C-alpha cells in the first residue's frame, strides 16, 4: 500500500512542485489549502485529497494530518512586508499546530522547510547547520526561527522530523526572485548596492529531491540540512541574464550599501505611517539578503543523504527564464 503524504502550502511555489513529484512517485497525496483558493479544483482533478483550511486553524490541521505517514510542511508567509502578527500566526503558530497534530497521530516523519534567512548571513562568509540562528527584528527571518524552534521542541517530545534551510529557491512558478527582478529591471528601478556579491541558489527540482530524501531516509531523523546547489554566480550575473531574457538594458548603477539601507528604512517608515499594504520598493531585509556574501555549506546533505543537484544551475536558470517570458509582465510583481 502506498504511503500517504500531507503537503501544506500546496498552492505555493515549493508546495506545488512537491505535489507533482509525490504524485509521480506514487504517494497518496493530501493537501491543506485555504478555502476559496483557485488551485483546489485542479488539485482534486489531479487526484489529490484536498482538506480546506488554514495552518492557523488547529482543527483543520488535525483533520489533514490524520492518517498521514509523512508531512511536508511548506506553508509559510514568505515576504519582507506585512503585519508582524500574520507572520507569527502562520510561521510560528501554524508550525506549532502541524507539530502537535503530527505527534498526536504518530506521523512517521515531518519535514519542515525553514529558510537560510534564519542565519544573519549577510555578516558571515560561510553558513552551515551549526551556525547559530540570529533574530534581527525582521518579520520573516525571526518567525522562521520561531517555527524551526517549534520543530526542535517537538523532536524532544518524540517527533521524527527534519529541518531544511534552503537558500534562494528558483524555477518555473517562482513568485519571488526572478519575477521581482524582472519587474524592477523592466521599469528601470533596479540598481546595485554591493559589487560582485555571490548569490546562493537552489533549483526547485533539486530542493524537492532533498526534501524527499529527508522525509524517507532513516539517518535524516532529528537532523537539519542546508539546501544550496553551490555553483558560483553573482547577483549582477543573475540580473544580466534576466535583463537579456526580457529585452531590457542591464542595471549599471551602484550606490553605497549604507545609503541604500537607510533609504529602505525611510521607505518602510513612510509606508507604515500611511498604513500601506503594498510592499515598498526597498526593505532592509531585501537589502541585506541581496548583499550577502555568505556561502552555504551543503556537505552534510551530500554526505549523509547522498543528495546531488541533478539540474545544473545554467540549465535551471534557462528553464526559469523560458517560463518567465511566457508570463504577463503585469503579473511579475506578485508580492
TrEMBL record:
One of its GO terms (cellular component) is cytoplasm. GO terms for molecular function: aldehyde dehydrogenase (NAD+) activity. Signal peptide: none annotated. It comes from the Bacteria. Residues 5-223 form the NAD-dependent epimerase/dehydratase domain. Pfam families: Epimerase. PANTHER family: NAD(P)-BINDING DOMAIN-CONTAINING PROTEIN-RELATED, PROTEIN YEEZ. This is NAD-dependent epimerase/dehydratase. The lineage of its organism: Bacteria, Pseudomonadati, Chlorobiota, Chlorobiia, Chlorobiales.
